């Protein structure tokens, strides 16, 4: 039986990847909560993809950003970790220093999981960071036309309607599994947070690891889905918020989302710079009745942050609502 919340910090597990995860974690870091971040390891793009190809380690990019978001180091030290070499540097072009450090420590420690635990201590991380798998995973997709494709960037770039995704171990025929601390964190949590992030390439790759999906489906914790503000080209074009939840339920074979946070604020016409934010398509439409039919509690509010001609989640407002859900009202 769990110890009562009155005697300990509430345990929040945030699952995802991409740029949305650090926004939530950075705003949770200084709150009176016990944070665990479960981070996708199926990325194959950019510096992460190049390092994975040559060194054969779990892609480090998402993990690097999460380490920085939860680190209590001075900004200058975090900036060094995040520094990306100029494209004019032939050998290091485009690589982030943090990616190289994670790759090196993964080799030294014999796997990404122990490497991240070591780095978490070095970087004075507040909370826990768990790679979803200790092995590099490949993301696979089947499209509505019956064709299949492998690789996160290739799947997104295909601009075809995705029917389902799954993950496979990149180095063996073994079924991917998360290490036990990941499962224990999910089963002992008070709140599970999914997103915000790309539905098919940031959130579902974690849930498609069989024991992770089973744990999220059976945990007694409240499962909260932070629905995206914008649809994503090549993944969720023309999706409503209910469509996002329906896809999650279909992949796990049961309705498991308890609460959905949806943005109610309209993105101003002509505001988005689609040349810069190439993955953004249109604003996610709201289908309240559809969400209720899926058994979800719906929390609709202004979660919008407009900056740099793009539409993003306001991390402070999202975290305020997450804390309200677990009775933390002093944010």
TrEMBL record:
Tagged with keyword Translocase: no
Superkingdom of origin: Bacteria
Cytoplasm keyword on record: yes
Pfam family, one: CofD
GO cellular component, as recorded: cytoplasm
Location(s) in or outside the cell: Cytoplasm
An MF annotation (GO) of this entry: LPPG:FO 2-phospho-L-lactate transferase activity
Chief site of localization: cytoplasm
Key words, A-Z: Cytoplasm
GO biological process: one example: regulation of cell shape
HAMAP family with a match to the protein in the record: Gluconeogen_factor (MF_00973)
Family membership: Belongs to the gluconeogenesis factor family.
Biological role: Required for morphogenesis under gluconeogenic growth conditions.
The name this protein goes by in its record: Putative gluconeogenesis factor
Lineage: Bacteria, Bacillati, Bacillota, Bacilli, Lactobacillales
